[in-house]
Amino acid sequence: MRFIFCIILSVIFVAAKGQLLPPTVNKDRRPGNNRNVNATMKTGRDTTGFQQRNNLEDSITISFHYLDSTTRRLLDSSVTNFDNYFPLPRTWQNLGNNGAAAYPILFKPIMKAGFDAGFHAYDIYKFKLEETKLYRTTRPFSMLGYQLAGGKEQMLQAAHTQNPKPNFNFGFDYRLISAPGLFINQNSNHNSYRIFSTYTGKRKRYNANLIFLGNNIRASQNGGIQNDTLLSDPNRKDRFSVPVNLGNNNRYNTNPFVTTVNTGITYRDLNLFLRQSYDLGKKDSIKINDTLTDFLFYPKLRLQHTFKLSIEKYSYLDKNADSAVYKDWYDKDLISDTFSIKEKYRIISNDISFLSFPDTKNQSQFFLAGAEIQNINASNSVLYNVKAHAEYRNKTRNKLWDILIAGEIYTVGYNKGNYSAQAFLSRYLNKKLGNVSVLFKNVNRTPSYIFNNNSKFNLSGENFSANENIILLSAKSENSFATISFENYLLNNYTYFYDYYHARQFSSPINILRVSASKKINISKHIKWYTENSFQQSTKNSPVHLPLMYSFNRFAFEGSFFKNLSISTGFELRYISPYKANNYSPVTGSFFSQDTIKINNRPDINFYLHFRIRSFTGYIRLENLNTVSTENGFGFTHNNFAAPHYPTPGLLIRFGIRWWFVN
């Protein structure tokens, strides 16, 4: 705690000496909104001869684009949506605390061809290459965020980016998630970091992107509580008195910086990405003055090389193993008190691609063709892949059409026969009808390596040779009235765990249909109702069990007051209809299908107060008000369940801050 407060005090001191990020325009105070950002106010003088202050002289123009995207975006400083401040979206569910294993409530299969290790229960907390923001900014920009919740749960976020020169940008992102948990052996501690840089040559023909990122995921695994009825025991309102299946003897430590995991998983990954390109095309220049010339370049052909290095380590350790549990769940006869499994993967890939730009003045339209070679060290196996890929993109200059056609195929190697093909079309109609889009995607993939009998985490020794095939067809309409979407998945040879360590492939096709709608309803000038609703259904008797209905509603009082204050306060309600939620296997780190226990929860209810004053954002939340109970006295003890025998917390009081400032 002292360390955290020292950081906060340091930032206050820096912000006091520097300039906090001012609003860029009067009505839209989002930093990065480039409308009128660089506009110069007329300088006036009063009768005493003093110069009028320019309130925009320290403003900042900042934008970013994601890796492999040409669309530039602006930072979002809205205070309504808590997903902007929390790593777990509201359409996901964790197993009880921030940093615990999590799954999507709305069905989302793995749609990635090629090699995949198969450990995805903690993906939502990780920094990923494809989510890297590559910035362009006129001033050094920094962000610091801190969050504290019940049970000494903490989250620290920090980011910085700057352009020392117009053609060179660098920055970093960092996030710490630490949660001791509210039940025995439930602590988690995650560290994620990312360093990124972009460079463009003086004559704008050479470009380079460098990204270095890593994730260190540590999470204890308690296997759920032993008996659900113990939650109603008046003598067990302190949830650390409720016995769990794994790690009952582990010592509880409330220090959020203690990273020891005596019974649980440790996942580490390290990623290096380097992309270099050189353009051929038409050059031009603009002479600004006698000594300064701005060089322009319009590419026609680009040669691009991409190097990737990924090192992934997965381990499970139990220093005080309960032999009865491991015999019952995993059919393991332990010869000592320690049970451990480790696995390491190293993937090196080199990709050569050629890009052609038909329209000289539109770099968002191009053809790409390339080939990639992968070398994979997996456990005791040495594997390789050769992949060919191509795509066509066109976001028209009038911003009306957005087209993507892409495909890849693995021609040689471990994943031979894998492929991915997709077609995306989007059309902006008008202000009233908004935007409509359609997507088709077909993926043929080898089941994840955890289902291969060479994996140490494949405790059953089973192997599956048939490829999974997934087809997605979706459509979406976004306009001022509502957002409506349709998704249909067709799964063949779906591979899944059906208990703690056994797996199988479902031979029949599985069809999953989902229809969603969301809308913002203006009840009055300051009272708003945000509603999101999804209905989804899976083929009868399939192993994919889904809630029929997901609904999220936010009733908010919001608006801008006193010139610089933006506020949103109200209630959030999330409802998930009863269904047979997947259970969780601690050793494999995977969710598995079960047919015996139906989860029937109360709707989640949260009260929140979010506000922003210029570049400072604060939020206070009372979460899980739905757990209130008068049984055995007043308290918040009527816990919901995320999975069989995995209760979610009672009342949580959460508060946090976020600062954006310019140095």
Can you tell me about this structure?
The chain is mainly β. It has one domain: Maltoporin, Chain A. The protein is 4% helix and 51% strand. The chain has 2 helices and 35 strands. It has helices spanning 2-17, 323-330, and strands spanning 19-20, 62-66, 92-94, 102-104, 133-137, 141-149, 153-165, 168-179, 188-200, 206-220, 263-287, 293-318, 339-356, 365-378, 381-395, 401-413, 419-430, 434-445, 468-478, 483-492, 494-497, 503-506, 510-522, 527-538, 549-561, 565-576, 583-585, 590-592, 604-613, 616-623, 628-629, 635-636, 641-643, 646-647, 652-662. It has a 22-stranded antiparallel barrel. A two-stranded antiparallel sheet has the order 2-5. The longest helix is centred in the first third of the chain and has 16 residues, at 2-17. It is globular.
Strand-helix topology:
Elements: H1 2-17, E1 19-20, E2 62-66, E3 92-94, E4 102-104, E5 133-137, E6 141-149, E7 153-165, E8 168-179, E9 188-200, E10 206-220, E11 263-287, E12 293-318, H2 323-330, E13 339-356, E14 365-378, E15 381-395, E16 401-413, E17 419-430, E18 434-445, E19 468-478, E20 483-492, E21 494-497, E22 503-506, E23 510-522, E24 527-538, E25 549-561, E26 565-576, E27 583-585, E28 590-592, E29 604-613, E30 616-623, E31 628-629, E32 635-636, E33 641-643, E34 646-647, E35 652-662
Antiparallel strand pairs: 1-35, 2-5, 3-4, 6-7, 6-35, 7-8, 8-9, 9-10, 10-11, 11-12, 12-13, 13-14, 14-15, 15-16, 16-17, 17-18, 18-19, 19-20, 20-23, 21-22, 23-24, 24-25, 25-26, 26-29, 27-28, 29-30, 30-35, 31-32, 33-34
Assigned CATH architecture = Beta Barrel
Major beta sheet, specifics? 22 strands, antiparallel, barrel
Counting DSSP E segments of at least 2 residues, the number of strands comes to 35
What is the general shape?
Answer: globular
> How many domains in all?
1
